[in-house]
Amino acid sequence: MYIIDRFEGEWAVIETENRVMFNFPRSGLPLDLKEGDVINIQIHINPEATLRRHQKAESLLNNFFDE
């Protein structure tokens, strides 16, 4: 369980059940959130984006060493 404690500019300050606070980008949250709202957070891997990043990094390294 996570609770929206407050908003500070572009950040939401979120409190955990254990009273640990952390900042989360406000842009990644629903627009209608209010202070005191309880939220769920789920993390999912995006395999396509991960593959693109790996390919880009490999390409940059290959180009760096080819010169």
Describe the structure.
The chain contains 1 helix and 4 strands; from the N terminus they run E-E-E-E-H. A 4-stranded antiparallel sheet has the order 3-2-1-4, with no helix packed on it. With 67 residues, it is of the alpha+beta class. The protein has one domain (2-66).
Helices and strands, in order, run as EEEEH
What is the CA-based Rg, rounded? Answer: 18 Å
Distance between the termini: 52 Å
Q: Can you give the helix content as a percent range?
A: 25-40%
How many H/I helices? 1
- Biggest sheet details: 4 strands, antiparallel
Count of folded domains: 1
Structural class computed from helices and strand pairing: alpha+beta
Strand order of the largest sheet: 3-2-1-4
Number of strands: 4
Backbone shape = elongated
Unreliable spans are none
Strand proportion, as a percent range, falls in: 25-35%
Mean pLDDT: 94
Protein name: DUF3006 domain-containing protein
Pfam families: DUF3006
InterPro entries: DUF3006 (IPR021377)
